[in-house]
Write a structure and sequence with these properties.
With about 375 residues, this protein is α+β, with helices and mostly antiparallel strands. The protein is built from 16 helices and twelve strands. Helix 12 packs antiparallel against helix 13 (about 295-310) and helix 12 (about 275-295) runs parallel beside helix 14 (about 320-335). The termini are far apart.
């Protein structure tokens, strides 16, 4: 990166070039005044130097990555090597220049750039505007790329999201910046979150992987309560209560609105990925019940397919996990066979979870479709 001695808070213009090493050489020469035509008849002084930053040039090369990979007998470097390789691909064409708008225009329109086979050109947003990055954000981005303390990747911008999934980051150098939960995973009995925030004038997003609950705070502080160690039980208790309100009580318009707000807040749970096989069936059941309460038609269809696939053509539950799935399938489809199968399982398995009895108490009087089994 070319540096000036004086402090500069001008924004950085985002540009692109298909050959980062070539443009690095040319920008160094141009900034140093080496490309100034001293024999020109025009009485023009060399333009002032400027800062520029080309991430690809300062990231580990393919050879370095391969050497790391080959020398790592423990396998611990594999994730880091793969991440570096992906970042090099993501950032291959990007060039950042900190200078005035006029100065950057002169660079782009310079004879040496126009004469080249590959041209340096502006990176623009969806409205065709030149993309600029403020100096503070550029410092954050450079530090993140160079330190790589956290796992991250670049992706398409985040457009629509539910406010309940908005968080404030508590990781340097992004402390205080708002982001959105893109994915929540339950890995090795611990919740991990992928957080996305838009950059480059909302043309890209930077996505941090596997952040822990201490790395962020929820904009809606009540969400933090949900994501505790016993989040599955909390999710289930909320759903049981909402199911009871909807199917066993006559609620006022005000109460219905409060329930809708509670239900919307639970969307955080819906996005959790479960890698614990022992809990997958139960959690899939809860997601299916939630999607049914939200009346998410296509998502319900998808989850019904996943649930029936897990059951593998079973007509009666063989264990508690099967019973969970069948109860959720009844709530989603109203097919009587699923409810009847769970009732029979409860009657023949005294030790089954009490939660299945509570579900049945709520849905026992729901109008059902004739069984297709």
């Amino acid at each position: 990166m070319k540096e000036n001695k004086d402090h500069n808070t001008q924004p950085w213009y985002v540009l692109c070039h298909l050959n980062p090493k070539q443009i690095d050489i040319m920008l160094r020469k141009d900034s140093n005044g080496e490309l100034y035509d001293k024999n020109s008849e025009e009485k023009v002084k060399p333009l002032p130097p400027y800062k520029f930053y080309i991430p690809y040039v300062f990231m580990p090369t393919a050879e370095t990555l391969k050497a790391q990979e080959d020398s790592d007998r423990s396998g611990k470097l594999n994730d880091s090597v793969d991440r570096n390789r992906e970042l090099r691909n993501d950032l291959h064409n990007f060039v950042f220049i900190q200078a005035s708008a006029e100065r950057v225009d002169r660079i782009v329109s310079s004879p040496w750039n126009r004469a080249g086979r590959l041209h340096l050109y502006y990176y623009r947003d969806h409205e065709g505007k030149k993309v600029v990055v403020q100096d503070a954000d550029m410092s954050r981005l450079k530090k993140t790329i160079q330190d790589q303390h956290f796992m991250f990747y670049f992706d398409q911008p985040i457009n629509d999201f539910e406010e309940e999934n908005e968080v404030v980051l508590n990781i340097e150098p992004w402390t205080g910046r708002n982001g959105v939960i893109k994915k929540i995973s339950y890995k090795k009995k611990q919740l991990c979150m992928d957080i996305s925030l838009n950059i480059f004038n909302r043309t890209k997003s930077i996505n941090f992987v596997d952040l822990k609950t201490g790395d962020l705070a929820f904009v809606d502080s009540r969400q933090e309560t949900f994501l505790s160690e016993d989040f599955i039980t909390l999710f289930e208790e909320e759903l049981i209560d909402l199911l009871s309100h909807r199917y066993t009580k006559t609620v006022t318009e005000e109460e219905a609105q409060k329930d809708a707000t509670r239900l919307k807040r639970l969307s955080t749970y819906y996005n959790i990925y479960m890698d614990d096989e022992a809990e997958q069936a139960r959690f899939l059941s809860l997601r299916l019940i939630y999607a049914s309460l939200r009346q998410w038609g296509k998502k319900v269809e998808t989850l019904v397919g996943e649930a029936t696939s897990l059951l593998k053509d079973k007509e009666t539950p063989l264990d508690d996990a099967d019973a969970y799935l069948m109860m959720a399938l009844f709530i989603a489809t109203r097919i009587a066979h699923w409810r009847d199968a769970v009732k029979q399982y409860r009657n023949t398995h005294p030790g089954c979870p009490d939660i299945l009895r509570r579900y049945h108490t709520i849905v026992k009087n729901l109008k059902a479709k004739h069984s297709t089994k």
